[in-house]
Write a structure and sequence with these properties.
The strands form four sheets. The protein has a seven-stranded mixed sheet, with helices on both faces. It has a three-stranded antiparallel sheet with strand order 1-5-4. A two-stranded antiparallel ribbon has the order 11-12. Among the domains are: about 5-285, CorA soluble domain-like (Beta Polymerase, domain 2, 2-Layer Sandwich); about 460-520, no CATH class; about 520-558, no CATH class. With about 550 residues, it is α+β, with helices and mostly antiparallel strands. The protein has helices at about 10-15, 35-45, 45-50, 80-90, 130-140, 145-150, 245-250, 265-285, 290-305, 305-310, 320-360, 370-455, 475-520, 550-555, and strands at about 5, 60-65, 75-80, 90-95, 100-105, 110-115, 165-170, 190-205, 215-225, 235-240, 460, 470-475, 520-525, 530. The termini are far apart. A hairpin with a 7-residue loop joins strand 2 and strand 3 (about 75-80).
């Protein structure tokens, strides 16, 4: 097919695709100069983390349905920037004029599905920034779409998993002439929506111990465009793997229902787009129930003993430690993440239903009457999913209350175990006191005998002299013994008494220092006069009825 010359404004946008979203044609509030520049700067800051620089890893699967080439499905995996431009039908030819000429080789298909993905949700997307901005520029994707891609990229842990949003752009009357591109089959009357949903999946399963199972919350971003005059549909999906693409293949494959993959008329294309929406909503709902069941079983297995375990004397019971409280806190945080994801999914789906219901109330929507029943059916189906989300949210909230109650029980068990250990320590100290008493009594019994034995072993009295069998007494030895023993005993007792007195004085000075701000303040007496409280150290001045400060505080006068 020969190339068709595209409008000048669109040509300039394609040539400046690197500057997306500043090059967008339809300038809405989120595409103004300042906000667009900020979005471009933020994209540039994360370019190394978001996009793959190894050309061996580049891959962008594209599926075109009901195309002009006579095929029902035309699909290809793009591995280079040149192949991407060729698939889109864009040709950039040099010109003698100031800028090259951009031509379009084919019209947009009735339905185009573009899957942008990485190896997993925390890895780089498998395309370059140039390829990414070319896709968004060619399809004139609204700049708000950039807000959603920052959840992805190379990262150790999700940094913005809690982000959620729903954006829309509707042009049903008087479209800007720059958006009317007959060469590409675009009427300019269209709507765009972009949103994100969160699913959960079993990452790895252990048959021996379910506690070792690993679950992962995974985000997905969806962008959708629909031309209300020509029925052209565009899907751009970003996810950590190709799961959504595989489901879309099944939805539109040869064994799928005809009404889900029909694009012969605008009404059929619209119905097929609603089927794709339901597909994404069911994906977001699919495994949350079983994830919550796993959380409940895990909490019961690890901490049910806190409720049912025997705690009486003679029973075997679990010994709790502070890490048990930390473990419960971890389970509670995981459950709160579940509630956050479920609530965000419910809010997004409610916004999706309200968007289509507002379309049925818009007189400028050409499918207002012909597709009213389809929108009603779609709304009822999504509301059923939302109801299921609400039930799972209540279930998760009950689990949080259960975790909180068990944490209190674990704390009580810790306190009771500490009290039991303190009681055991008290009993052991009592036994030690008994032992010390026994030792003291024994010492008192043997001390006189020991003293006598030691005394008679000196030279004061001797019984070993054969010349004096009655024994001999030495007054000089007795005198020397008393001269050494009595002063040494006095010095020892004096040092002990001085040390005790010094310790008591130091403690009293410390206590007076702590009471000084209070005792130096002024208190009002019963006659309105003020009395200054002075620090008193002599207990005899306080009388027999307590401290001076206590008497003043009780209303007593001097």
């Amino acid at each position: 097919m020969s190339g068709r010359l595209l409008p000048d404004v669109f040509q300039q946008a394609v040539l400046n695709s690197r500057s997306y979203p500043r090059n967008i044609i339809y300038q809405t509030l989120d595409a103004y100069s300042k906000s667009a520049t900020k979005a471009e700067t933020r994209l540039g800051e994360r370019e190394d983390d978001l996009f793959e620089d190894n050309e061996l890893e580049w891959e962008v699967p594209i599926r075109d349905l009901d195309t002009e080439c006579g095929k029902d499905v035309d699909k290809y995996n793009i591995h280079s920037h040149e192949k991407l431009l060729e698939w889109l039908g864009i040709k950039i030819q040099p010109s003698s004029q100031r800028f090259p000429i951009v031509t379009g080789g084919k019209k947009d298909p009735k339905c185009r599905f573009i899957n942008i993905y990485g190896l997993h949700s925390r890895s780089k997307l498998r395309l370059t920034r140039a390829m990414f901005t070319d896709i968004l520029t060619f399809h004139q994707v609204m700049p708000a779409f950039l807000e959603f891609i920052h959840v992805f990229g190379q990262q150790g842990e999700f940094t913005d998993l809690h982000f959620t949003g729903f954006r829309e752009q509707v042009i049903l009357t008087n479209p800007p002439k720059e958006l009317i591109i007959p060469e590409l089959g675009r009427s300019g009357k269209h709507y765009q929506i972009c949103f994100n949903l969160k699913g959960v999946s079993l990452k790895s399963e252990c048959k021996e111990d379910f506690m070792l199972n690993e679950w992962s919350i995974r985000p997905a971003v969806f962008h959708h465009q629909f031309d209300v005059s020509n029925g052209n549909t565009l899907w751009i999906v970003i996810k950590g793997n190709q799961e959504i693409q595989d489901r879309f293949k099944a939805l539109t494959g040869k064994d799928a229902r005809a009404q889900d993959k029909s694009f012969g008329s605008v009404e059929e294309s619209f119905h097929s787009s609603l089927s794709a929406h339901l597909l994404y909503c069911h994906w977001a709902m699919e495994d949350w129930r079983w994830y919550i069941v796993w959380l409940e079983k895990a909490v019961d297995k690890k901490h049910l003993m806190a409720v049912l375990g025997p705690s009486g004397v003679g029973h075997a019971h679990k010994i709790y430690t502070p890490p048990d409280i930390q473990d419960l806190q971890i389970w509670e945080e995981r459950t709160r993440q579940v509630i956050m994801a479920l609530e965000s999914n419910a809010d997004i789906m409610f916004s999706l239903v309200m968007f289509y219901r507002r379309l049925t109330e818009d007189k400028n929507f050409p499918l207002e009457k012909s597709c009213y029943s389809d929108i009603c059916y779609f709304g009822n189906q999504v509301e059923n999913i939302i109801s299921d989300f609400r039930m799972q949210i209540k279930r998760a909230e009950l689990l949080i209350r259960t975790i909180s109650d068990r944490r209190q029980l674990v704390i009580q068990h810790l306190q009771s175990q500490s009290a039991y250990r303190a009681e055991s320590l008290g009993r052991s100290m009592e036994q030690e006191q008994i032992f010390m008493l026994v030792i003291t009594i024994v010492t008192l019994i043997f001390l006189p005998a020991t003293f006598v034995s030691t005394f008679f072993s000196t030279d004061i009295i001797k019984y070993q002299d054969p010349d004096s069998p009655e024994g001999s007494f030495s007054a000089i030895a007795m005198s020397r013994w008393l001269e050494v023993t009595i002063p040494l005993t006095v010095v020892t007792c004096g040092v002990a008494w001085w040390a005790r007195r010094w310790k008591l004085m130091k403690r009293r000075a410390h206590e007076v220092g702590l009471e000084q701000p209070i005792t130096s303040s002024k208190l009002k007496g019963p006659l309105g006069s003020s009395a200054t409280l002075l620090p008193l150290h002599n207990k005899s001045t306080l009388g027999t009825r307590g401290s001076f400060l206590e008497r003043v505080m009780k209303g007593k006068t001097f």
